[in-house]
Amino acid sequence: MKAFRRLCIAVITVFLLMTVILNLFLVGMKDRNEGIYRVEAKRLADEIAETGEFDLEKYPHITGVFTGDELYRSDEHYLIIEAGGTLYRVEYTAGNGQSSIVVINCVFGVLFLLVIGLLCYIRWHIIVPFSRLNDVPQELARGNLAVPIPEEKSRFFGKFTWGVNLLRESIEDSRKKEITMQRDKKLLLLSLSHDIKTPLSAIKLNAKALARGLYKDEEKRRAAALSINTRADEIERFVSEITKAASEDFMSFEVTQGEAFLSVIITRIKERYAPELAMSKTEFIIQKYDDCILSCDPDRLAECLQNLIENAIKYGDGRRIEISFDKMDGCELITVSNTGCTLETKELPQIFESFHRGNNADNVQGNGLGLFICRRLMGLMNGEVYADICDDAFSITLVVKMA
Predict the structure, then answer these.
(1) How far is the first Cα of the chain from the last one, in angstroms, to the nearest whole number?
(2) String of b and e for 103-135 (b: at least 16 CB within 10 Å)?
């Protein structure tokens, strides 16, 4: 708010200074114009005195020269000069400098009022509503989901407040899902841990009996060994369940299947990354494509492309990133490729797993979830994704069904 006040003061000061400077300039021009006709009259008197005649075309500010009985009778602006012992009435065009100054000042006054009105409008409809929302993102970042979000009827912030409310609801839902998932996993692990104790105790008893030679009969020793093996299989099954529970989806994805033009999605990607890549001098190529309607969630498909381009920026050599297109069996193939690939071909089957990071990610920050998210989202949109390495270029292709 203080910065806006300073801006208002600066704008008003500059406006007033411009008005003063322009008025001084106009006053100077007015005085100069009013003196021109006197100079021309003096030149006219000299010409008449020398030649006895005159040419009005030489004097643009003089409209007529008269002498005789009605020397002083005229409704025009005039002055009396003497040339060769004769008096002449010289009529001239009067400057309208004063009226011009008044008109220009009136125009500046109207503009000044418009500027003041615009600044007031910006203050009450943009600055003040935004200041009421200023603390909301900080409170959400701190985990305060109960922060009040004032409703704004302003068309500038109505959609913003609606979006912030959606964000808060999404964070709250995610927190609830996370708590439920953590509780369920904890209960499962506790239950499995308890179930493991029974076969483990049986294994220990049979192992001690065999170690001490308590079973003299070969059949009993064989039965004890079989019991140990059976109990070990039970423990292995429990461990598999624990592993499965630990590797279960820890992220929930919501997809709203619909239809979208390919050009709309590519335009979003171009507007998002073209300026950034131009600044880093990375060649960003979008091949020609035939526009078509895709069966997808446009926001999720754009998210997949963003993940692929972010990976290309992080793991490529910064020379070129390219988006190419193809069609096959009623599907649109969108391929994002980048130069400078150092990933080994044997790692391709694992790159779509959660938290997997290739051997080229040693000095690059990340969590290994980008391609995992792409695979999940494409699966939910009835599409596919696959990767390939050709020469030094790494490419990932999204297979999207056409509507």
Answers:
(1) 50
(2) eeeeebeeeeeeeeeebeeeeebeeebeeeeee
Domains of the chain by start residue, with CATH? 2-99 (no CATH), 172-246 (1.10.287.130), 258-401 (3.30.565.10)
What's the CA angle centered on 373, arms 369 and 378, to 5 degrees?
Answer: 155
HEC profile for the chain?
CHHHHHHHHHHHHHHHHHHHHHHHHHHHHHHHHHHHHHHHHHHHHHHHHHHCCCCHHHCCCEEEEECCCCCCCCCCCEEEEEECCEEEEEEECCCCHHHHHHHHHHHHHHHHHHHHHHHHHHHHHHHHHHHHCCCHHHHHHCCCCCCCCCCCCCCCCHHHHHHHHHHHHHHHHHHHHHHHHHHHHHHHHHHHHHHHHHHHHHHHHHHHHHHHCCCCCHHHHHHHHHHHHHHHHHHHHHHHHHHHHHCCCCCCCCCCCEEEEHHHHHHHHHHHHHHHHHHCCCEEEECCCCCCEEEECHHHHHHHHHHHHHHHHHHCCCCEEEEEEEEECCEEEEEEEECCCCCCHHHHHHCCCCCCCCCCCCCCCCCCCHHHHHHHHHHHCCCEEEEEEECCEEEEEEEEEEC
**Residue 148 pLDDT exceeds 80:** no
- Per-residue pLDDT tens for 230-268? 888 888 887 777 766 665 555 667 889 999 999 999 999
- pLDDT tens, residue by residue, 266-314: 999 999 899 989 998 999 999 999 999 999 999 999 999 999 999 899 8
Q: How far apart are CA 110 and CA 389, in angstroms?
A: 67
Of 388, 385, 364, 363, nearest in space to 375 by CA: 385
Contact 293, 257 (CB under 8 A): no
For 336-386, write each residue's pLDDT tens digit.
999 988 888 888 888 888 766 666 556 666 667 788 889 999 999 999 999
pLDDT at 286: 95
pLDDT (mean) for 320-330 = 94
Q: Which of 96, 89, 110 is nearest to 41 (CA)?
A: 89
Quick: pLDDT tens for 27-77: 666 555 556 777 788 888 888 888 877 888 888 877 888 887 666 777 777
